[in-house]
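Example record used in the benchmark description.
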Amino acid sequence: MLAEGETVAVFGQFTCTSVYAKRTFTSPFSIKAIVKDGLITYFQFMEDTYSSASSFRVAGEWTIQQDADPAKNFKVSEKSKSE
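Model output (structure tokens):
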């Protein structure tokens, strides 16, 4: 945790397990907050949202669009049991 004036930054990681799919992932996170008169007036939380969302997937394939050009899309499938 770092602080300078009214701005606070926090960095770390957490591990979660989705309740029904039983998939566990670890994600880095960061928080930026602005505190005025003892109250948080601004709060920004960042995490690995992709890993979080994928922990709920139990089957199927995702098509990921990373660019305006659909030719650059790619597919993500569930990992095989041997990986």
